[in-house]
Amino acid sequence: MVVMPSPKRAPSASKQVDQRREWIASREALRLVSEAYALHDTAEYETTAKRHHAAMAKAADALMRRLTEGSLLARPVWYRFVQGNHDNGEEHLIQLQEQDRAISPNFWRNLQRLRRSADIDWIAGDFSFEDNDAGVYATGSANSVKFDRSGLPAIDRLTSKPPSNPSGAPRKWDWDGALLHLAALAHGSPDGLFRDDGKDPNQSDIARHLRAWFIDTHGDAPETSQLRDYGKRFMAELNAVKLQGANNLRHPE
């Protein structure tokens, strides 16, 4: 009897996605982002240690902001996240997100909300919280967490130079970078740019996303009026695209 070799299976979609990502340890992610902030911080500090401390604080805030909005993927070695109700005994175990086996942004939102009592260890990559207020409770723990390097804020600033306009004078704000981030967030985040209630964003929501990016990468942001103006223009484009889609449905070729 001739035994035929079994055909090789194509790698699964999740493995293909995983191969495209560079997962780095929590302490390495914090180091890279804090170095970027230290490099581009124009403030004056009394000592190098104080500059380093300020950069670390900004880096941790920026990482957490990306995690809560879902634009930075993180995956643990060990993980448990449970939400329940003491009154009726209901309990819901929140699984890791497919395809990357990434931690849900809801985990990070709870951690951020409970940050004063939460256990946050960026060096070890260990994060945990417990909330037992009223009848509702939530407990979560993620250990040896690694981050997707491509989603880290500000690290492109380690080697980049400030963009210039055609006359050679430096531009104050990198709107191209901010709008590219907005496009990537809309396309790549599980929640896109939708609000928590599932509805489309308004111009204030868009302004908030843009402001978060500028703070992450520059430590400062344009005036609110400028941000809202871009938000208004974004909504005009979004409405035009939706109208075109509706017309195509009514009058298919």
Give a structural overview:
The chain is of the alpha+beta class. It folds into two domains: about 20-150, no CATH class; about 170-250, no CATH class. Helices cover about 45% and strands about 15% of the residues. The chain has helices spanning about 15-20, 25-40, 50-70, 105-115, 175-190, 205-220, 225-250; strands at about 25, 75, 80-85, 90-95, 120, 125-130, 135-145, 145-150.
Mean pLDDT: 80
Q: State the low-pLDDT regions, or none.
A: 1-8
The share of residues in extended strands comes to: 5-15%
Strand order of the largest sheet: 4-3-7-6-5
- How are helices and strands ordered from N to C? HEHHEEEHEEEEHHH
Write the topology of this structure.
Layout: H1 13-19, E1 23-25, H2 26-40, H3 48-69, E2 74-75, E3 78-85, E4 91-93, H4 105-113, E5 119-121, E6 126-131, E7 136-143, E8 146-148, H5 175-188, H6 203-218, H7 224-250
Antiparallel strand pairs: 1-8, 2-8, 3-4, 3-7, 5-6, 6-7
In short:
The protein is an alpha+beta fold and 253 residues long. The chain has seven helices and eight strands, in the order αβααβββαββββααα.
Keywords summarizing the entry:
253 residues; alpha+beta; 2 domains; globular; disordered N terminus
